[in-house]
Amino acid sequence: MIPWLTLLAAGGLLGAGATKGVLLLRGRLDWPPLRPLGIPIGPLPVAAGEVLVAAAAAVAPPSAAAGLLAAAYLGLTCAAAALLGRECACFGGRGVVSPIRVGLNAVIAAVMAVIAIVGGEGPPVGVRAAVVGGVAVAVVAVSLRRAADAPDEPSTPTDPARIATLTIVVSPDCPACARLRARLRDYPPHWIDWQDSGSGSWAEQAKGTYPCAIATDAAGVPLGAPRWGVSSIAELADGYAAHRITAGS
Q: Where are the beta strands (DSSP E) in 142-204?
């Protein structure tokens, strides 16, 4: 029983890392700014680390594998605690980081630590790799399904003709923000009000997740809910730009 718990934990970690990679390629990974010890960390190093640890755990002896996983899940516990209440896709499909997420990672870390001490015999390497891979595939499938069921677009589209100002709140350490800036770099500067997450007047609307776009009318009243995610914001900006070109402004 003990070795199988280790394999399940490794598969979950591998699936989380793979999901990050897929969502990143699709431009749907909402990655909040992370600066442990003052060093910004993007999604690629985290995803790569998860995949490497999971792969090592799949072929290592149970005690060593459990030790690696205990350290990895302890790190995830700390990250989840720091992001508590914020929305991101850093643990798979997009959602709010809840106390349940923090507690689950903490429990897994504790169980892995106990297994690392107790030890035990595991199945052959081929069986371990197959189980870890199977669990990872299931995690990726479920996470991507959740992401597909929760699109970035709001239920009520924003009418580009009513937009007077399009504000986009960004963070200096946000890879998605850099991609969005590159995507919209050909737009005239006065069409978009870029605001920094630390000082912008609309920063609170972002709720700690960047980039975030807020469309307002001539009176400064928001038109619908804010938008998050590169693809959703780019779609809004394209519609806004097309209207301005048509209107000759």
A: 165-170, 192-196
Distance CA 15, CA 58 (A): 13
Q: Do 99 and 108 form a contact (C-beta atoms < 8 A)?
A: no
7, 12, 16, 22 alpha-carbon torsion, rounded to 10°: 80
Name 139's Cβ contacts closer than 8 Å, sequence gap at least 6: 11, 12, 14, 15, 16, 18, 19, 92
pTM confidence score: 0.64
CA gap 206, 83 in Å, rounded: 14
Among residues 190, 194, 189, the alpha carbon closest in space to that of 233 is found at 194
Question: Angle at Cα 129 formed by Cα 132 and Cα 134, nearest 5°?
Answer: 40
What is the band of 95 on the pLDDT scale with cuts at 50, 70, 90? low
Helix 2-25 and helix 43-59: axis angle, to 10°?
A: 150
For the cut 60, the answer to whether the pLDDT of residue 153 exceeds it is no
- Residues 95 and 89: their CA atoms lie apart, in Å, by 6
**Phi/psi class of residue 193: alpha, beta or left (left: φ > 0; alpha: ψ in -120 to 50)?**
beta
- Strand pairing report for 192-196 and 212-216: unpaired
**Which band of pLDDT confidence, cut at 50, 70 and 90, is reported for residue 155?**
very low
Partners of 170 in the beta sheet?
196
Q: Which residue has the tokens 């399904």?
A: 145
More confident residue, 201 or 226: 226
- The whole-angstrom separation of Cα 166 and Cα 150 is 23
Do residues 121 and 3 make contact, with C-beta atoms less than 8 angstroms apart? yes
Residues 6+ apart with CB under 8 A from 178: none
